[in-house]
Amino acid sequence: MSADFSRDFDLPDAPATARLGAALAPLLAAGDLILLRGDLGVGKTALARALIGAHLAAHGLAEDVPSPTFTLVQTYESPALLIAHVDLYRVENTEELRELGLAEIVDEGVAIVEWPERGGSGLLHLSASRLDIALSLVPEGGRCARLTGSGSWAARLKGLTI
Ligand SMILES: Nc1ncnc2c1ncn2[C@@H]1O[C@H](COP(=O)(O)OP(=O)(O)OP(=O)(O)O)[C@@H](O)[C@H]1O
Ligand SMILES: [Mg+2]
Questions:
Q1: Which end is more exposed in the chain, N or C (fewer Cβ atoms within 10 Å of the end residue's Cβ)?
Q2: What is the Cα–Cα distance from 64 to 121, expressed in whole angstroms?
């Protein structure tokens, strides 16, 4: 089994968050599970928006990427990938969680999940190709991102430049 691998990135302003999202976009592959952690308003949606927007733009598609805070899930399709952007903040029970169909999404595409801690530990086992991104505030006003790659994400993360 390959070991997890972590890297920290300083994100001094919102454009830096967008650059990290854009840099991750070409690394996406079907079967990926990307977990976005961090407090309210830290930039999880901003990062997901940049990642999805860059993937779609690379395929000549321009689409709004709204926050899934209220819809719980937004799905996107390019010729290469199905991407589901999920926000578990408002999920109230396991039935609601099951109805989102995360296991099915990861079977055929990529799931990007905000507030994964609300989905329970079962979420961690949905995919062997997992990228955990923990965002935190830094006192100067920017953010820090700690990226931890499991499975094939460890090698992908080693080559990442933003
Ligand atoms: N590196 C950064 N430095 C400073 N501000 C940033 C940075 N990255 C993102 N932001 C700003 O932080 C805010 C983040 O809002 P966003 O909705 O993405 O947070 P969130 O983590 O998804 O919140 P929620 O938990 O409510 O879903 C936006 O206003 C964005 O412009
Ligand atoms: Mg959000």
A1: N
A2: 31
pLDDT surpasses 70 at 18? yes
Is the beta carbon of 16 within 6 A of some atom in ligand 1?
yes
* C-alpha dist (Å) from residue 113 to 1, 20, 76, 139: 24, 16, 14, 26
Note the pLDDT of residue 132.
98
Whole-structure pTM value: 0.97
Q: Tokens for 139?
A: 């006192």
State yes or no: pLDDT of 1 exceeds 60: no
- To test the ligand 1 pocket, which listed residue (20, 42, 67) has its Cβ within 8 A of the most ligand atoms? 42
What domains are defined for the chain? Answer: 30-114+126-136+152-162 (3.40.50.300)
17 lines ligand 1 (CB under 6 A): yes
Does residue 13 have its Cβ closer than 6 Å to ligand 1? yes
Average pLDDT over residues 125-146: 96
